[in-house]
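User: I'm writing a tutorial on reading structure tokens. Could you give me a worked example: one chain, its sequence, then its tokens, then a sentence or two explaining what the tokens reveal?
Assistant: Sure. Here is the example chain.
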Amino acid sequence: MVEDDWIVDTGASNHMTRVLQKLIDYKQCDKDVKAIMADGTISHAKGEDSIYLNGLWLKSIFFVPNLRCNLISISKLSRDKN
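And here are its predicted structure tokens:
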């Protein structure tokens, strides 16, 4: 999978990326944000930011270094766009 690939995920509760270089105004997480991986393991977000991706503004993307792919959360997108 290419670093620029994004998967639209109906099961993810948050947007997540594994590529720190995509985040422009990166801030370390001041809270413990856990991400449950597809295999059931738990990873922790290291930080968060927002990015503009192909005409779409994605707010509060969590940086999770050991993700296999970048995820766009449908539920988060729906909440953000009302």
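What the tokens reveal: The mean pLDDT is 87. The two ends are 31 Å apart (CA to CA).
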